[in-house]
Write a structure and sequence with these properties.
The protein has 14 helices and 11 strands. The chain is α/β, with parallel strands linked by helices. Strand 6, helix 2 and strand 7 form a beta-alpha-beta unit. It is globular, with a radius of gyration of 22 Å. It folds into 2 domains: 185 residues, Rossmann fold (3-Layer(aba) Sandwich); 121 residues, Homeodomain-like (Arc Repressor Mutant, subunit A). This is GlxA family transcriptional regulator. InterPro entries: Class_I_gatase-like, DJ-1/PfpI, Homeodomain-like_sf, HTH_AraC, INH-QAR. It comes from Streptomyces guryensis. One of its GO terms (molecular function) is sequence-specific DNA binding.
Length: 322
């Protein structure tokens, strides 16, 4: 198996976890299967860099001297954004990025890739707080704000911070297989692995909290009773509003329709049961409000691109079902 060089780009204002998270994954893979990865860090002029949290990182070499890597990883952080951004970074990426066999960004590292023209015509994601900016500043990039990471050909972009670990685990699994990636995930005490199209936010985080108390109580009721009667008429009655008034007010105050909110809460409830319990698929479908296994399967495939049984296998391969 050929050794793959992984080059991590460092710069002032980088987010330290965007660097160390993926680095620990690839380093773990090298320990597990020696000779598979050669990990290097580089900065402009080989200068030490100060991360956004104040940690100083000393690179291995100058970017100017770095050979073309197999995997070029660009982290995010304050240093990717104006006025802190060094314009030479985009220039270097524009010249050297196309030489990498695999181009990867974590968090707002996607902004640097876009500045270098490396995301033109591609689908990409970044930290939720900067998706609108990325789309506005680079209209040639198809920005998807929902997934934790996106693959478009040989280009991989991921969302905020810890999603870089998810993406690195996915890359190791692609390179070496499932077992080494699972061993690394267990060592790091993280899941193997959140699917790339899993949403960046839970329903409770994605939706705004309603201003009015009756609507907030309905939100809480939905979360606590995913298997309940959650049609608009029943929820409206709980809020003491007409169905039409309730639907308008709920969307205005939370940013999503009642139906969409219910769908997300039920999916998250089912996911947690698949991850944390040994309950059977049929039992979970009832407890999550789907009623039937087929209804839950359709919801999983539509939203996560995988069936419940496969989702459980990815997250908890050793959990017996009953």
């Amino acid at each position: 198996m050929p050794q793959r060089t992984v080059l991590l780009v460092l710069f002032d204002g980088v987010q330290s976890l965007d660097v160390t998270g993926p680095l620990e994954v690839f380093a773990g893979a090298e320990l597990h299967t020696p000779g598979t990865y050669r990990i290097r860090t580089a900065s402009l002029g080989a200068a030490p860099v100060r991360t956004s949290s104040g940690l100083t990182l000393v690179p291995d070499q100058d970017l100017a001297d770095a050979p073309a890597p197999h995997t070029l990883l660009v982290p995010g952080g304050q240093g990717t954004r104006r006025p802190a951004r060094d314009p030479r970074l985009a220039d270097w990426l524009r010249e050297h990025g196309p030489r990498a066999e695999r181009l990867v960004s974590v968090c707002t590292g996607a902004i640097l890739l876009a500045e270098a023209g490396l995301l033109d015509g591609r689908r990409a994601t970044t930290h939720w707080a900067y998706c609108d900016k990325l789309a506005r500043d680079h209209p040639s990039v198809e920005v998807d704000p929902d997934p934790i990471y996106v693959r478009d050909g040989h280009v991989f972009t991921s969302a905020g911070v810890t999603s870089g670990i998810d993406l690195a685990l996915a890359l190791v699994e692609e390179d070496l297989g499932r077992e080494p990636a699972l061993t690394i995930a267990r060592h790091l005490v993280v899941f193997l692995r959140r699917p790339g199209n899993q949403a960046q936010f839970s329903a409770q985080l994605a939706a705004q909290t309603a201003r009015r108390e009756p609507l907030r109580e309905v939100q809480q009721w939905i979360t606590e009773h995913p298997d309940g009667d959650l049609d608009v008429e029943s929820l409206a009655a709980r809020a003491a509003l007409s169905p039409r008034h309730f639907a308008r007010a709920f969307q205005a105050e939370t940013g999503m329709t009642p139906g969409r909110y219910v769908d997300r809460v039920r999916l998250e409830h089912a996911r947690r049961l698949l991850e944390d319990t040994a309950d059977g698929i049929e039992e979970i479908s009832r407890a999550s409000g789907y009623g039937t296994c087929e209804a839950m399967r359709r919801a999983f495939v539509r939203t996560l691109g995988t069936a419940p049984a496969e989702y459980r296998r990815r997250f908890r391969p050793a959990v017996p079902t009953r």
